[in-house]
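Study this chain:
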Amino acid sequence: MDIDWVREQFPAFKQNHPKRPKTPMIFMDNAGGSQTVRHAIESIGEYLTHFDVQLGASYATSVSASEQLEKATKSIQTYVNAERIEEVIVGASSTSLVRILSLCLSQGWKTGDEVIITDVDHEANRAAWIELERQGIVIKTWCIRPKTFELHADDLLTLMTDKTKLVCFTHVSNILGTINPIAEWTQLIHDNEALVFVDGVAYAPHRLIDVQAWDVDFYFFSTYKTFGPHQGVMYGKYEILDTIPGFNHAFIQTSPYKFQPGNVNYELCYAMGGVVKYLCELGTEGLSVEINRKNLKNAYSLIANYEATLLQRLLDYLTTIPAFRIIGINNSQTNLRVATLSIIHESLDSKTIVQYVDDFQIGIRFGDFYAVELIDHLGLREKQGVVRISLAHYNTLEEVDALIQAIDSLL
């Protein structure tokens, strides 16, 4: 991968830290929010300049605006490999989309029906379902095994009954970084006649989404963590979306509109088309802007392999320091994990480490990252959570070395 070309596509890397103009900022809090690619930034300005009208009118600018939004949404459809454009729902955030779906789906459930969540997930894929206890829905928790840092299918099977309506889990934990076998789990859950709802937020920046291959019923991710502006995207199978109640005006009965109250943020949705354009360019080494799955697959293959190199450099250092403990698997294999790494130190709390590194103009982070139950289950609250280093494909080996030097100077 041409890292110089990649970094040229992100305007943030041409800016210096405002308090220390000669010291460029190193961004390693990417799981909290990535930098925004140039195409997305330019798309926002382009939309507001040329298409800033309400959709659905007969005059020329409105017609053009509708066409541009449809084009951008089709790019998202290609990105997730949805069968139909009606399966792509765009909203203000992942959290809001999950909440909307929980309210819509649950209208078809009755007292005693069950939803299974995990103690690994971000609260976005927990809180909305827990709220349904007020209407008599039974919430069960599929728990991680602390020694392996893994969810086991056998533990899930013990929780499922003929009343289980939905199982919610994460594709990649935003703390552990492990890639879960969601196709295998989905088949198991479908065999037990329940639906699947997957959090793909920590997966999408690092690997290509393929909802048809996995056969998931619902899948969501955040575009501000995939090199775009702040919003969320949710996929749902059309045959399910078409039959459940919506969350919009009563006369709006078609998907995705019935799940998009007030419609989408036009310019931000349009910008996501710019993100997909960039990824397709990356997949052809900057030679093509054709939006297709082949180019996207090539891009994410480059991303996965490059990020594994960055991660391995960091793992090689950390494993030489016995005081550090990696929370997750100590491995950079691309089929096992993404480049989101959490650690703790035996004597230093996580806050102390991160605030020390701050002075080197390196952005990492400490805490629970809204994976509240996971941090509590692992007994890491008194450590101020974990130190999380989340790398992206625009980071460099030199930046990883700078982080290593900063940590080493603390020890």
